[in-house]
Hints:
Layout: H1 3-49, H2 57-68, H3 77-90, H4 94-101, H5 105-114, H6 118-131, H7 135-143, H8 146-150, H9 168-175, H10 189-208, E1 213-224, E2 227-237, E3 242-252, H11 255-271, E4 281-288, H12 291-299, E5 305-308, H13 318-323, H14 327-333
Parallel strand pairs: 3-4, 4-5
Antiparallel strand pairs: 1-2, 2-3
Helix pairs in contact: 1-3, 5-7
Amino acid sequence: MDNTKIDKSYSDIIENIKNDVTKTQLDILINANVNLVNLYFRLGKILSENSKWGNKFIDNVAMDLKISFPNQKGYSVRNLKYMKAFYEEYKNDNEFVHLGAQLPWKHNIELMKRVKDKNIRKWYMENCIKEGWSKSILIYQIDTCLYQRQVKNIKHTNSDLTLKQNSDLANYIIKEPYVFDLIELTENYKERELENKMLERLKNVLLELGSGFSFVGSQYKITVGDQDFYIDLLFYHIKLKCYVAVELKTCEFVPEFGSKLGFYLTALDEKIKDENDNPSIGILLCQSKNNEIVDYTLKYINKPLGVSEYKIFNELPENLLKELPTKEDINLHLDVEDESE
């Protein structure tokens, strides 16, 4: 008997089972997402039609819902206001409601905030479903004006709008807090690829500006306590005589980013820098940031560290700001061209 054939046959059976399980999990998650977005639309209708109760109406609703559903995170005042806005945006357009129900709630919020023209917004919604963009990739495509760059060359029809099983959007739905914790998360490869492209572009920008940056390495490994850590980009600044660690995040700033970069700077100072070098500095570039959260984070990190929405934070030391690229330098050069053009 040919054991190779038996092994191959068994392998095919297991693969079919795994595919069926994964597809069923995704179907459950998509249905949960559709039900949730439709629920938010209905709640938005109630909030919109009962505004006669005054400015505190939504605050009171949020408080009562928190008491009734203490373990659910979706009924904050802010989120209830988004539900109201969602209903008022789409109450007369069932097609938008249908498209919105196929996207995670946070995707819908970003689309309402960032794309005011409904025809353009619809294009992003359709392409997001078709291409399976995560929230970070959706924001990136909007910020880099993908519609304006590609709309003349790409046409999509509603018949094409099928969510791919292994897409970033499917993975993003899995990560949403209301979805089951039992579903195993998969790596977001497209988002990582996007980060790599932007890091390469940023490296070239800093070197080409000729402001004293000397490239040391990307994904630079530094070992602390028998564990390996990797800095996105590491430079040595010849004029300032110090190492410069650059971290890039294709998402909104959270305090953990600042703490981690502070850790990297400490490790560089303790393990890498020479006694004649000045203390290492850090640049953290994020998709977006809340200034108050950044201020609270940096207040207790005793390191020269800048946080920016792809520009240099304006509270870095003055001598450092003179040597670093301006926000115009970075904004003009950081854009990553889409390979499909």
